[in-house]
Records
---
Amino acid sequence: MTRARILGTGSYLPEKVVTNHDIEKLVDTSDNWIRERTGIYERRVVAESQVCGDLALVAAQRALESAGVSGSDIDLVIVATCTPDNIFPSTASVLQSRLDIQPGAPSFDVSAACSGFIYALGIADKFVRSGAAKRPLVVGSETMTRILDWDDRGTCVLFGDGAGAVVLEASENEDGIISSHLHSDGSFESLLYVPWGPGRGFSALDDKSGYIRMRGNEVFKVAVNTLTRIVEESLESAQVDKSEIDWLIPHQANIRIIQATAKKLELPMDRVVVTVGEHGNTSAASVPIALDTAVKDGRIKRGELLLMEAFGGGFTWGSALVRY
Ligand code: ACO
C-alpha cells in the first residue's frame, strides 16, 4: 500500500519577540492572566516588510534541505493559510515559482483556519495514495498578527506569526501517514470569524472589520470536546491503542486545551510537544512548527508513532496519525 512518508521538516519564526509585558502596555491585561489562562508568555511578530509567503519560503527551504531534495523534485504544493499575501495568485503558486518547483505541478492554498495544516496534510495524503503525486510540499504559514485588533484583549494576547513545512514522499513501506481525518461544522461561524472578505466589497471594509472576532470561552468548550472525539476516531480507525502513541503534536492554541487532550490519551506531558508558550497560536503554522521543533531537537525519532490534531475557525478540525 502506498503511503505518504515525512521526508523532511522545516520551520521559520520572525525575529521580533513580543512578550506579555509588551502587551500589558497596549491593553488592560497582565502577564499573569495570559500565562495562567493560555500558557503563552511571548510570541513572534512579522517585520513590516514580510508577508506570509516570505515566512513560507524559508520554512519550505529548510524542509527541502532536511529532506535532501530540491524544488524541482516537488510535484504538488499546498499552503495552508488564512492570511495569504494576495487574493490571488495563491501563496502556493508564488512559492512554486520562488522555489523553482516544476512548472505544471498543481499548487493551491487551503483555508481551514487553525486546522489548515492538518487539512493540507490530509489532502496531500490522498493525492499520494491515489498516485496523483509522489513528492508533495505541505506548508502552514500565517501572519496572524496582521488580522488582530490590538485594542481587543480577548484576542490580541493569543496569536503569533510563523511557518512550518514538510516534504512528503510516496513510500511502499509501513512508515508515513496511517490515517487522516478532516471535519467541519459551519454552524459555529458566530463564535470565531473575521467579518470581512474581498467578496463583500471594499465599501464594507472599515477600521475593525478585517480583524478576528472570537467568543473565546465558548470556543474553548467546543474545542476540548471535539478534540477528544477526533483523538478517539483516529485511534479506532487505525486500530491503535492509546498506549502506542509516542508523541502528541497538538495545535498550539491554549495549554489547557492541550492538557485536556493529553489526559484523554493518558499521555504524560513530557510526550506532548508544546510550543504555545514561546510562539502563541500561529494558526495553520502551529502543528508543523511544533513537529519541526521536536524533530530538530532530537525528541522525535524515526519509527515513532505521532498523533497530530487541530481545531479552528469554521469550525474545522482534524487529525493525522503518522509513523515517523
Ligand atoms: N486579560 C485580562 N482579562 C481578560 C483578557 C485578558 N487578555 N481577556 C479576557 N479577559 C477577561 C474577560 O473580560 C472576563 O472578564 P469578566 O469575568 O469580568 O467578564 C474574564 O477575563 C474571563 O474571560 P473568559 O473568556 O471566560 O476567559 P477564559 O478562561 O475562557 O480564557 C481564552 C479566555 C484564553 C480566550 C480561552 O477561552 C481560550 O483559549 N479559548 C479558545 C481559543 C482557541 O482555541 N481558538 C482556537 C482556534 S483560533 C483559529 O481558528 C484562528
---
Amino acid sequence: MVRKLAAGNWKMNGTRAALEELQALAQAHSDPAVDILICPPATLLMSAAELVSGHPLDIGAQDCHTAPSGAHTGDISAPMIADCGATAVIVGHSERREDHNESNDLIRAKAESAHAAGLTAIICIGETLAQRDAGQTLDVIADQLQGSTPDGATGVNTVIAYEPVWAIGTGKVPSLEQIGEVHDFIREKLTARFGADNVRTIRLLYGGSVKPANAAEIFAVPNVDGALVGGASLTEADFSPIIKSLE
Ligand code: PEP
C-alpha cells in the first residue's frame, strides 16, 4: 500500500494572513496517517516552509521553469523552490496549459528540472468537456501522460494528478465509474511504460471539486491514492475533513 497524499493547490490566493490557515492545519494534524502537501503562491513559499518545519506537512510550488537559472524575468526555477524548503512542484496544471499555452514537451522538461533539483513533480493531466463529449477522454489522457511524464519517473519523484478540466472549480464531479475508468487506465499505461514494481508506488491523485462531502466516496475508488484540491484547501475547516477521509 502506498501512503496516500492530500495535496492542496492555493492557486493565486493568499497573502501572509493565509499562513494562519496553514498554522491551524499543522496543529490539527500532528501525526497524520497520510502525506499532506500545501502549494501556496510563490510569494509565500519560504514563510510556509519555515512555518511547517518540524511538522509532518510539506510545501510545494505551483510551477517552475525548465532552466535552473537565467534570463527569464518573472519565472522561478526548481532549485530556487528547493532552496525555499519546498519538496514538490505542480507542473502542467490545466490553468497553465490553457493560460500559458503549455505543451506536453514543456511540462515534461519542467518535471525533469524538478527531478534534477530533488523535487517531486506533480504532473497534471485531464480532458476538457468537449473532449469528453467527443469520446476522446482516454486518448487525451494517454497523450498527456506519455508526453508530460519523464522517462526517469519513479514513485519518489513523480505523482500524477488526473484533473478533468470541466470539474476544476465548477462543483461538477465525474461519476465514480468515470474516475475509476481513467485511474485504472493511467495505472495500466504507467505499468506498460515503467513496469509493475515501480508503478505501484507512483501515486495517482484525483482533482476537481473535491469537497468534504464527496471526498470519502472518491477516495474509495480503486487506484485513487489521494487528491489535489483547489478551493477546499484554502481553509483548515474544509481541508481537514478531506484529509481525515483519506486516513
Ligand atoms: C485544482 O486547482 O487543482 C482543483 C482541483 O481545483 P478545485 O478543487 O477548486 O476544483
---
Amino acid sequence: VSLSEVSAPASALSLRGVQHTFAANNVVKGIDLDIAQGEVVCLLGPSGCGKTTLLRIAAGLEVVQEGTVSLEGQAIAAPGKRHVPPEKRNVGLAFQDSALFPHLSVVENVTFGLKHLPTSQRRERALELLTQLGMADYVETYPHMLSGGQQQRVALARALAPTPKLMLLDEPFSSLDARLRDRIRDDTLHVLKKLGSATLLVTHDPEEAMFMADRIALMRDGKIIQTGTPRELYCAPVDPFVVTFFGEVNELEGVVQGGVVQTPVGAVDASWLPEGSAAQVMIRPEALRIKERDLPAEAHSHSHVVMAKLLGRTSLIHLCAHGVDGQEAHLHARVPGVFLPQEGQPIDIDLDHSQVFIFPR
Ligand code: ATP
C-alpha cells in the first residue's frame, strides 16, 4: 500500500464502469467518475446523452446493472450484491420536477428532512436557507400558490437543509427566468461551498457548467468525452465535439504542409499532425481580432466586411477573408463593444492562436 493511498481521503462519490440499458437501448456506456469532498462537478452534454440516468444511478433511483457506486469509499450499489436505497444514502436530491409536499407550507417542506435537529433549530435552519435563496417572503405559503421557479428554489432549500455529504442536482435552475437564474446560481454555489457538500449537477448549458463547476464532465452518447476544469475544456478541448459544445465556431479544412495549415487568416501550427494529412481547423469567433479598424475604403486588404450587427456586449461581424494563395472563407468574428463597419469595409484580421484548434480530419 503506497503512502498516497493511505493519506488520500476517499472520494465523496465514485462511479466505476457504470453501464445502463433501457430495453435494448444502451444509454450509459462505461462511466468512471470521482467527485472529491466539497467539489462541484457538472455533468454536461446534449439532450438524451444519459446525464439524468447517471445521476439517478448515483442517487439509487435506478438499480445498478453493471459497475459500482461508492460513497466515501463504501460500495453502496453493485449488480446482484447490494443496493442501499436512496433514503439511506445521506444524499440531497433536487430534480427538475421535484415535487414538494402539497399539504405542507414552504417552511414545513424544508424542515421535513431535519427531524434529527431540535425543533427550535429546524425552523431557524430552514429560514436561513430560504432567505439565501430569495424565498423569505413565502415561508408560510403553500406550493400550489408558487410559480415553477419559486417551487424549484424551495426544492433546492429542502435538498440542502440536512447538509448532506453529497448533493445530486438535475437542471435545478431550469424553471427560473434568465435574470433570476444568475442570482440563484450564485447563491446556490455560495451555499454549496459553505456547506462543503460534494455536488454532481446535471446541465445542458455550457455557461452554467462553467460558472458552477470545479470540474466539468462532458458527455456524448453515454460516454464521458472529456473531464477537466472549465478552462481545460474551453482552452484545451480533446476533440471537435468539445469545441463546438461551447459555442459557435468557424470551421475550415486544410492540408498540413511544412508543419502548418494555411488558412485565409494566417498559418495555424499543425506540427503534431503528419505532413500531407487533412486537417480540420476550428476558429472561435473571438479568436478573429480586428487589427486595423479604420482602413480607407479603397485600401487593399485581406478581408472585408459582409455584415455587422450589434449584439450588446459584443458586435458580430460576418467577413470574407482572402488568403494570399486565392483561398477565400466566410467567417464570423465577435469583437467587444460597439463596432459597426459598413458593408464592404476592408479590415485587417489577426488570430488569437489560443482560441484556434486543429484536429486530424
Ligand atoms: P436531457 O438533458 O434531455 O434530460 P439526459 O442526457 O439527461 O437528457 P437521459 O434522461 O439520461 O438523458 O436519457 C438517456 C436516454 O435514455 C434517452 O434516449 C431516453 O429516452 C432514455 N431513457 C431514459 N429513461 C428511460 C426509461 N425509464 N425507459 C426507457 N428509456 C429511457
